[in-house]
Amino acid sequence: MMAQTSLRTLALRWGIGGFACSAALVAVGVGFAQGISGFNSDAPVNYAADRIELQDKQQRVVLSGNVDISQGDLRLRAGRTTVAYTDAGALKIQRLDATGGVVVTRGNETARGEVAIYDFNRRIITLAGGVSLLRGSDSLNGGRLVMDLASGVSSIDGRAGGSSSAIGGTSGGGGGRVSGSFSVPKRN
User: Fold this and answer.
1) Contact yes or no for 82/62 (Cβ under 8 A)
2) How would you classify residue 123: left for phi > 0, otherwise alpha for psi between -120 and 50, otherwise beta?
3) Complete domains list, the chain, with CATH
4) Are 117 and 97 in contact (CB under 8 A)?
5) Disulfide-capable partner of 81 in 22, 39, 63, 68 (CB 3.0 to 4.6 Å)?
6) Sign of dihedral through CA atoms 78, 131, 168, 34?
7) pLDDT per residue as tens digits for the range 116-132
8) C-alpha to C-alpha distance for 167 and 170, rounded to whole angstroms
9) Is 173 exposed, middle or buried (0-12, 13-18, 19+ CB in 10 A)?
C-alpha cells in the first residue's frame, strides 16, 4: 500500500511537472507568435545576393551567395534561395525555398534551420533541420518550426516533417524531441 501511494505521488508530480513544461512551451510559442502576429505579409519583398539568375521559362529566380531577403521587418538570410513566381501582367512571388544555414529574424527573435520554405499564398514559413528559436534569453530547439503569419501561431516539434526530401530530411538534436531553456526572474 505504501509503495502504491509513493508511486501515485510520484506519477502525480511527474504529471504536474509535465503539464508545467507543456504550459511553458506553449507560453514561449505564444510569445513568439505575438512577435509575428502584427506582420504585414503583403509588404514588398526586397532581396540582395552575390549572384542572381533569372530562369524565365521556369518562372523562378535563383539567388546565391550571402542571400539577404527582407519583407517589412522580417529578414531571411541563407546561402541559396529559389524564388518561384507567376507572371500574369505583373510578377507575383508564390514560394521561396532557402537552403544553407537559414536565419530568420524579426525584432529580438531569431529562428535558425538548414532549410526554409516561405509559402506566400498560405502565408506560412517552415524551417527544418536542427531548428533553434531564440527570443531574448529563452530558447527552443527541435526539428521543424512552422510560423503561420496569418494567424500569428508558431509551433515547433521534434521531427523534420512529412516529406523529408522537401523539408531537409534531418531532425533536430534531442532524438526527435523539443528542448529548450527559459529564463527565471531574479528574486529581490
Assistant:
1) yes
2) left
3) 2-181 (2.60.450.10)
4) yes
5) 63
6) negative
7) 999 999 999 999 999 99
8) 8
9) middle
Which of 37-41, 78-82, 102-106, 123-127 has the least mean pLDDT?
37-41
**Digit-coded pLDDT (tens) for 58-83:** 999 999 999 999 999 999 999 999 99
Confidence check: pLDDT of 172 > 60: no
Q: Distance between CA 83 and CA 94 in Å, rounded?
A: 8
The residue type of 76 is: L
Comparing C-alpha atoms, which of 64, 71, 36 is closest to residue 48? 64
Q: Measure the CA–CA gap between 100 and 94, rounded to whole angstroms.
A: 21
How much is the pTM?
0.69
Give the C-alpha separation, 23 to 117, whole Å.
Answer: 28
Could you tell me if 126 and 111 are in contact, meaning their C-beta atoms sit under 8 angstroms apart? no
Q: Taking residues 134-161, report their average pLDDT.
A: 84
